[in-house]
Amino acid sequence: SARLRPPLFCSDAANPIPAGATTFQTQRERLSKASTSSKTWDLHFLGTASCIPTRSRSVSAMVLRHERGAFLFDCGEGTQVLMQEAPLKLSKISHIFLTHLHGDHVFGLPGMLCLLGAARKGSQESLDETDVSSSGKDDKLPPVEIFGPVGTRQFLRGAMQFTMSQITASYRVHELEDIPGLVPGQETAPSNEAVDVDHPRDSQRRRKKGKLGGLKPSAAHGEVPGGRQIF
């Protein structure tokens, strides 16, 4: 049976998604030409489900691919599998951005980094053809830049330590602190003030419209709440 997946949006108008493309396999075959063309960027929605995955939707993950590489936004459980099903190269991921540290946004990150290290060492698109036997970090490749809230570094270190796993790809974590109320160009939180606004009521509008139409107030005005049109 076909596995429904979220659609793929790209900036290449010359190669739109054909109607009836309901699986990643079909999309990959029909978009092979578009994937290799010189377009500015394309956006792949790997997972759009909230909280838990379903049979047709995986949890949060999307890839923004550009000419020099790809950015991964959120990395929910199963993202590494979806990356291999989509017309994407895992080795091209250079930046990972985490919106927050809820499980449905980060549970796939430790496994993704483990396989990312192996994929970046090989030149093949499929991980089945990538050499995963080597150990140790490859300092020749630039580190994967990971941006997330405070706690991202501790989460990754704990996951690697307690699962006795090793990330062969170099990575660098940037923890962003939340500053409540901060607005670009302001050093203090914005102030909120209430002001009076003159909103005419519906009854006032009906009376005004009735006068303009030459109608005088009568018992018929009581029919309006019942749904009858008297003007």
What does this structure look like?
The protein has 231 residues and is α/β, with parallel strands linked by helices. It has 2 domains: 8-176, 4-Layer Sandwich (Metallo-beta-lactamase, Chain A), CATH 3.60.15; 200-231, no CATH class. The protein contains 7 helices and 7 strands, in the order E-H-H-E-E-E-H-E-H-H-E-H-E-H. The protein has helices at residues 24-30, 32-36, 79-85, 103-106, 109-121, 152-162, 202-212, and strands at residues 8-10, 41-47, 61-66, 69-73, 93-97, 144-149, 171-176. A 7-stranded mixed beta sheet has the order 1-2-3-4-5-6-7. The longest helix is centred in the middle third of the chain and has 13 residues, at 109-121. The protein is elongated and about 85 Å long. The chain starts with 7 loop residues before the first strand and ends in a 19-residue tail after the last helix.
Q: Under the CATH scheme, which class of the largest domain?
A: Alpha Beta
Overall tally of structural domains: 2
Low-confidence stretches: 1-15, 123-136
In spatial order, strands of the major sheet run 1-2-3-4-5-6-7
Q: DSSP helix count?
A: 7
Short overview:
The protein has about 230 residues and is of the alpha/beta class.
Topology:
Elements: E1 8-10, H1 24-30, H2 32-36, E2 41-47, E3 61-66, E4 69-73, H3 79-85, E5 93-97, H4 103-106, H5 109-121, E6 144-149, H6 152-162, E7 171-176, H7 202-212
Parallel strand pairs: 4-5, 5-6, 6-7
Antiparallel strand pairs: 1-2, 2-3, 3-4
